[in-house]
């Protein structure tokens, strides 16, 4: 089977490794920026914009590609599904409308409200500045404020005492409205739920929905302005703060959202869907959706997946997931991110040395993702992924793996429920 992977993130690297495990799979890739880890697994690859569908179509035709697996959110949001569907090429990924679940937070919240889906915090969507400011002045809980509309990535949280600073919230809302256009016409304001963050990922062929193990999330602000988010799983596929009831509740929320797409828009979601949740005193609350198999969810889930991922992709494409019984290792996983400083000016300041033999000996998997530290050159974010009979053992292996990577200004953080411990490699 000839598979074309679209994307260059650490999650795409994990997908590439999973696909390459099947000896009958010939892997190709289209990447916005070079990911050497993905390139090494491919028969051939192409660098270029993931919005240039004609170039990707030519590349796919040249290599007689049978299935596209799309990890790039930008490609999904800009209509890659429709482009290749019209050409008769099978694609694992969402349509433009379905990807609005991720691209447009307001779209997600309106869908949940209309279809009475549980797990939705109180929110308001405003297209008039004065109405939004009036809502802020009556706020009594921590808030998240972000533009609404396609590709509206910017957001700002006002947790703890910060939400009492009405002037700061008003200033941010005014900034949003000063930059409004047809793509981002307003602002969405919603309560920030309290509790522990986790993710539940599912795959679907449009008929059958199969869930993956729950992934605990630890998102932090690293030194020098870097952001990163690690993850972990437990051997029972639940989490210390997530029991079977909470897991089933989260899965039902995702089912209802997919059902709402079909009922309201006649859209059948096919592919990988990740729901990010908070489990806390308010129950299970959905904070966002990712439609592209995002990090670190796909990284940790694939680390314990026993079923051949190439066969899974084929079953999704042929709408035959019902014939598959997915199997997972009863092991814990942990993924730690090594993030470069954001104040480096030249590539010489960010030389990284990796002891590949040491990594192989430790049993740790190494993934990478390109990131731009400035406008001139990309640098890799490294991700070490380990399995163990317990979360603690997986963490110990991650630490051993990190010791095999050295470089100036690389920061990592222990992934656990404990207080964060940030260190320099």
Description of the molecule:
This protein is an alpha+beta fold. It has helices at 10-20, 36-39, 53-62, 73-77, 80-86, 96-103, 105-114, 129-137, 166-178, 244-265, 297-304, 309-317, 356-362, 391-402, and strands spanning 2-6, 26-31, 44-47, 67-70, 90-92, 123-126, 143-148, 156-158, 186-191, 196-204, 209-211, 215-221, 227-233, 271-280, 283-290, 332-340, 352-354, 365-372, 378-388, 405-407, 410-413, 422-424. Strand 14 and strand 15 (283-290) form a beta hairpin.
Task: Give the SSE map.
Elements: E1 2-6, H1 10-20, E2 26-31, H2 36-39, E3 44-47, H3 53-62, E4 67-70, H4 73-77, H5 80-86, E5 90-92, H6 96-103, H7 105-114, E6 123-126, H8 129-137, E7 143-148, E8 156-158, H9 166-178, E9 186-191, E10 196-204, E11 209-211, E12 215-221, E13 227-233, H10 244-265, E14 271-280, E15 283-290, H11 297-304, H12 309-317, E16 332-340, E17 352-354, H13 356-362, E18 365-372, E19 378-388, H14 391-402, E20 405-407, E21 410-413, E22 422-424
Parallel strand pairs: 1-2, 1-4, 2-3, 4-5
Antiparallel strand pairs: 6-9, 7-8, 7-9, 10-11, 10-12, 10-14, 12-13, 13-16, 14-15, 16-19, 16-21, 17-20, 18-19, 21-22
Helix pairs in contact: 1-11, 8-9
